[in-house]
Amino acid sequence: MSIVGRSSGALGQARGYATLKEIQMRLKSISNIAKITKSMKMIASTKVTKAQRNMETARAYGQSANSLLSHIEVVQKEAANPLVVAVSSDRGLCGGIHSSVSRAVKRYMANHQESSIAVIGQKARNQIQRDYRENIIMHFDQVTKVGPLWLEASMIADQILGSKAEGGADKLENGGTIVYNKFKSVISYEATPLAVHSAETIAAAPKLAAYEVDDAILKSYEEFTLANSLYWALAEGYASEMAAKRTAMENATKNAGEMITKLTLTYNRSRQAAITNELIDIITGASSLN
Amino acid sequence: MLFRSALVAVRSAANFSARRLYASEAGSGGKLRLNFALPHQTILKDFEAIQVNIQSSEGDMGILADHVPTIAQLANGGVIEILAADNKPRKFFVEYLFILPHTAQSSSPVSGGFAIINPDSSLNINAVEAVAVEDLDAEAARKGADEASRKMNASGASEKDKAEARVEFELFEAVLAAAKV
C-alpha cells in the first residue's frame, strides 16, 4: 500500500500526498527526534555555563602565563616549516566548530605550504586530511572527554616536544601556532591563532636581556608555556563547542517543531479528504438507489 | 626593622626615577601587582602585595616592588607566602605530582610552575596546583609519605618506580613541613 502511495506521488499529483499511515509514521518519528534534540539542548545548556566559567579561569591563566612574551616583545620566527596545532574534538552535532578550525588551518597552509600539522580531534582531522594529508605529523583523539584538563594539555605538549629525546627534531624549533575556537559569546565563536615559541626564539627576544634567567630555565619555560597555551586553547574550544552544540540543538528542535506543524496540517487535510470521499461515495450510492 | 627600611628604600627610588622616566615604564608606586593563577582557579588577580616569598629551583627569593625582572621556576613542594597591607596571612603550597614519562629520567625536576617579575613590577605566578597551607591534610600526607618510602625500598620495584616513589616521598615530606609551619 505504501509503495502504491509513493509511486502515485512520483507520477504526478493523481493521488496527492502519501497515505495517512505514512504521514502518521513520519509525524511520530519527527516528534521523537524533537524530544531527543530538546534534551540534548538542555544538557548542552548546563554544560555551557560550567564550561564558560572554566574558560574564564583558563583564559586568565593562559594570558598570565603568556604575558612575559609581550613584555619581552618576542618576534614570531619566520621559517619555512612551522608547526600548526589544530584544536578541535571528536564530537559531532555541534554546528560549524570543526569546519571553523579546519578552514583557518587551510588558509594558514595556503601561505605556509611546508608546515607540519598536529591535529587534536578526529572531526577536524578528517577535514584537514582531505587537502593536507602528508602534512599531518601527529593527531590526538579522545581529548576533552570530560572537559579540558591541564594534564591532557601537558601530555600533548610532551608529545609535541618529546620526540627530541628520541633523536628527532624539536617540533617547535621553527615556531608554532595553535588554532582554536575563541569563545566570544554564547552565540558566537571565532577561529583564532595563538603563537607558541621555542626557547631559542624567546632567548632572541629584544627585551629579554633585562631579565635574570638561565638557559635551562628557559627550556622549562618553553615546555610549561606550550602546555599552558594548549590548555587555554582546549578550554576555549570546549566552551565554544558546548555553546555551538546548544545552538545547533535549539535550531534542530525548532525545525522539527515546524515540520511537525506542517505535517499535522497535511495529515488533517488528508484525513478530511478521505472522509469527504467516503461521504461522497455513500451519498452517491444512496442517491442512485432513489 | 629590616622590613621598614626596605620599604623606605623602595619609595625613595620610585620618586627619583619618576622624574627621569618618560612614558612607557610607569613607576610601581612601591607595590607589587600580583597575578596568581592556576589552570582551574584564579587565586589572586591584580592584587597589591608588599612582598612575595617564593621557593624557586635556584633557592628562596623574596620579591618586593621594583625587583629586577626575573623568570624563576617554582620548586616542587615549595611554599609561596604573600604579604599584603591587610596583614592577613596567605601561604600556598605548590605541588605537581604527575610525572611525565620522559622526564622521570631527565635531570631537571618536574616544574611546579613559574614566577615572572616584569619591569613594571607586575608579578605573574602560574602554578599547576597550589593549596592554601590551612587546607593541607597532615594525616593524609603522613600516610602518603609512609606508603612512598615503602615503595622506594621495595625489593622488586624497577628503577623508574623507585624514582617516582622518591619524588612522591620528597613531596609528602615537603607537605608535612609546610603544614607544621
UniProtKB/TrEMBL annotation, chain A:
Alphabetized InterPro entries for the sequence: ATP_synth_F1_ATPase_gsu (IPR035968), ATP_synth_F1_gsu (IPR000131), ATP_synth_F1_gsu_CS (IPR023632)
Pfam families hit by this protein: ATP-synt
Gene Ontology cellular-component terms listed: mitochondrial inner membrane; proton-transporting ATP synthase complex
Keyword Disulfide bond belongs to the record: no
Membrane topology: Peripheral membrane protein
Coiled-coil region: none
Annotated localization: Mitochondrion inner membrane
Keyword Heme set for record: no
Chief location bin: mitochondrion
Protein keywords: ATP synthesis, CF(1), Hydrogen ion transport, Ion transport, Membrane, Mitochondrion, Mitochondrion inner membrane, Transport
GO molecular function: proton-transporting ATP synthase activity, rotational mechanism
Subunit structure: F-type ATPases have 2 components, CF(1) - the catalytic core - and CF(0) - the membrane proton channel. CF(1) and CF(0) have multiple subunits.
Family affiliation: Belongs to the ATPase gamma chain family.
PANTHER family on file: ATP SYNTHASE GAMMA CHAIN, ATP SYNTHASE SUBUNIT GAMMA, MITOCHONDRIAL
Name of the protein this chain belongs to: ATP synthase subunit gamma
Automatic annotation (TrEMBL), chain B:
Keyword Mitochondrion attached: yes
Compartments reported by the entry: Mitochondrion inner membrane
Keyword Transport among record annotations: yes
Residue intervals of the ATP synthase F1 complex delta/epsilon subunit N-terminal domain: 33-95
Alphabetical list of InterPro entries matching this protein: ATP_synth_F1_dsu/esu (IPR001469), ATP_synth_F1_dsu/esu_N (IPR020546), ATPsynth_dsu/esu_N (IPR036771)
Entry GO terms, CC: mitochondrial inner membrane; proton-transporting ATP synthase complex
Pfam families: ATP-synt_DE_N
Coiled-coil ranges per UniProt: none
Family, as annotated: Belongs to the ATPase epsilon chain family.
Protein name: ATP synthase subunit delta, mitochondrial
Organism listed in the record: Chytriomyces confervae
